[in-house]
From TrEMBL, chains A, B:
UniProt name for this protein: tRNA(Met) cytidine acetate ligase
Taxonomic lineage from the root: Bacteria, Bacillati, Bacillota, Bacilli, Bacillales
A single cellular component GO annotation: cytoplasm
Family matches, as Gene3D superfamilies: HUPs (3.40.50.620)
GO molecular function list: ATP binding; ligase activity, forming carbon-nitrogen bonds; transferase activity; tRNA binding
A single BP term in Gene Ontology: tRNA modification
Length: 401, 401
């Protein structure tokens, strides 16, 4: 049985994700699609709408065969570390291919770009450093440097966000996997950042979330797969709340107002004295939106600040992040019958152990994920739901479809 | 003008406090009564019902002439450090007497007890250590040791809470003041811990708070001075909320679930691995009451745990508490016309500087108090009231009656 790996966040699972999963199976000629998915906190430094278990269920009910969790220390990260963690997990789980969506839609320009970069890496790094000295953020500096160096030779437009992310997968595969072959499919319609829910078949996750918070879950019924709608609707009925940064604002404000700048400095990614800026803004903001608009600059992007705040909320320190270089386990969030068959056949060949049910033995390995689950739980205003969520990581078995 | 000092918390100011202030003036034959009052957090490790400025106003409108704030590092402390801070401030402000309420009601037994203790200090300390080895809390061990050593010779029953607290004032005066003469008046009627609001003239602060949270401010109207009722009523109308530990439970739970035991150990009074016990209870409690009942033991008294939680909420560390041995300023919360006259006459003789309006120059000195004020603000669920309270320490001028 051939398995294709995909890297996802599903916040929430939508029609574009459905298409991506289906096409990945087809173009790679695989029987199995394995998704590596961010847990309760996402790459752009945001709490997910609903927990990882429910997001895995959406995907499994729409045809994905197995969902593993991308641990926090790879998920809430720059694209390069995110890609490295995901590729290592897919490799460990026996995938022979990876398939990602990109604006470009063809794999050759990615391969060619990788060769160009390998040939000119010192020049590239020099250029990026120069651009950052001008006050640009890393993503902006990298995009500008790629453009200056490779524009004439490359067919790949790395200013497009999904081309850039895909290129990180290509790079990670090149370094960390001997057996994975990369594929890409054309990303259609909505851009990630699109905020309006249009009438096309595929709406962006951003526009779907916005619509849900403005008009309720019912309003997106026709824009998402049935599985997504029913999981969202049931979850909201049971828990009374979907989560976003607003639910965590008071915790962030409390931390910033009661900790010294030097103690805040031990938090991962808290660099260049940005904690002084965060404290000043926290003293003078009534909600998360006000706070973010006070903090954001050209250099400190929205995403970078959100990631810092996520580490602050979960008390994730530089010290512990520096001691985690490679994934140590495959945390199984769920599977369908075909996924189970694949696992039974091949799991002995996996190069990482599978964790299906968390127990005390896993404390050490999964410490950050467990803590992130508990921090996530604090977003519920209902103390009973909060309590359920605090123990959820330990009580949840994988979702079986 | 002779000034008498009193040490108070006023949570809230009630008829017994009124009697105490009036009698203190009479028995010491003073023109001025100066109160040193705990700030937003109290000696027993609790957030006050309402901020220090409003509590000072209640007292000033009932005849107290000047209110100074007892800084956090002396207020949220064992009785001996609490008494030391208060006596040093009263001495610095020129008081020639101190007057406290006690169950005993006569000063001679206190003086005699002090002499007895001075003569037998090593034996006393040895006994207290022995009692603590049996698992007793410090207050219980001290009470038992005093009883065993001095019962036959002393007329003072130190098992009575106000006798014990008064005895701390006597001890502090003996060590830290040459000019203060101690007086005591008989404490009548309700004990501090009484929870039922009875029909006598004097109701305990505990019973008044309980009644307010159960039945609203209106229900205590006839049990408190008019000034207290009107300040409470107005404050509640403006802020929609009086504060207690329930308002801070989610912050405590968040801190306990996202910090490592070793990082919690830097918090003041976090000793003997009690952080493990706190974390375990936080994982399994839906509210503050449940949590406290899980944590409390014979050795870890309710008060001791609450003080630890207050330090946790304000991130007050062992390191900073150890570096603060003596009050550095007199923070003026308010005064009446007579208080102002006294100040104009004598403030040049004061041995500590007066801070009336906080500004950037005071940051270093008042760092813990400013932080405590901000932590206190986080208890308001309304983000606009929270914001007002965050800056209140800087924006408030002293209350002038």
């Amino acid at each position: 049985m051939k398995a294709c790996g995909i890297v996802v966040e599903y916040n929430p699972f939508h029609n574009g994700h459905q298409l991506h999963a289906d096409q990945s199976r087809t173009v790679t000629n695989s029987e199995i699609v394995i998704a590596v998915m961010s847990g309760n906190f996402l790459q752009r430094g945001e709490p997910a709408l609903l927990p990882k278990q429910e997001r895995a269920e959406m995907a499994l009910r729409s045809g994905v065969d197995i969902v593993f969790e991308l641990p926090y220390q790879f998920a809430v990260q720059h694209a390069s570390i995110f890609a490295e963690g995901a590729v290592k997990l897919l490799d460990a789980a026996g995938c022979s291919s990876i398939c990602f969506g990109s604006e470009n839609g063809k794999i050759e320009p990615f391969i060619q770009q990788l060769q160009l970069e390998k040939d000119q890496r010192p020049e590239l790094q020099h250029k990026i450093r120069e651009q950052m000295k001008l006050g640009k953020s890393y993503p902006a500096a990298a995009a500008e440097s790629y453009k200056q160096l490779f524009e004439d030779q490359s067919q790949l437009d790395l200013a497009k966000p999904n081309n850039m992310l895909g290129y990180q997968y290509i790079t990670a595969v090149d370094v960390f996997s001997d057996k994975i072959k990369p594929y890409t499919i054309q990303r259609t319609s909505s851009q990630y950042h699109d905020e309006s829910l249009n009438h096309s078949f595929i709406s962006s996750a951003t526009s779907i979330r916005k619509k849900i918070f403005e008009d309720g879950v019912e309003s997106v019924k026709n824009h998402v797969p049935e599985s997504t709608y029913s999981v969202l609707d049931k979850y909201l009925g049971n828990h009374g709340q979907l989560l976003n940064w607003s639910s965590y604002w008071s915790y962030i404000q409390h931390i910033l107002l009661t900790n010294s700048p030097s103690s805040l400095e031990r938090i991962y990614e808290m660099e260049e004295g940005i904690q002084y800026r965060l404290i000043e803004a926290a003293l003078d903001s009534r909600n998360f939106g006000e706070f973010m608009h006070k903090v954001k600059t050209k250099r400190y992007t929205w995403t970078r600040i959100q990631r810092i705040l996520t580490h602050l909320l979960t008390t994730t320190t530089k010290e512990e992040m520096q001691s985690n270089h490679s994934p140590a386990y495959l945390r199984m969030l769920g599977m369908n019958a075909k996924g189970r068959e694949y696992l039974n056949l091949y799991k002995n060949d996996f190069t990482l152990p599978i964790i299906s049910n968390l127990n005390r033995n896993h404390h050490e390995q999964c410490a950050i994920d467990i803590r992130a689950g508990r921090a996530y739980a604090m977003g519920y205003s209902n103390p009973i739901k909060r309590q359920e969520m605090i123990v959820k990581d330990f009580k949840s078995a994988p979702v079986i479809i």
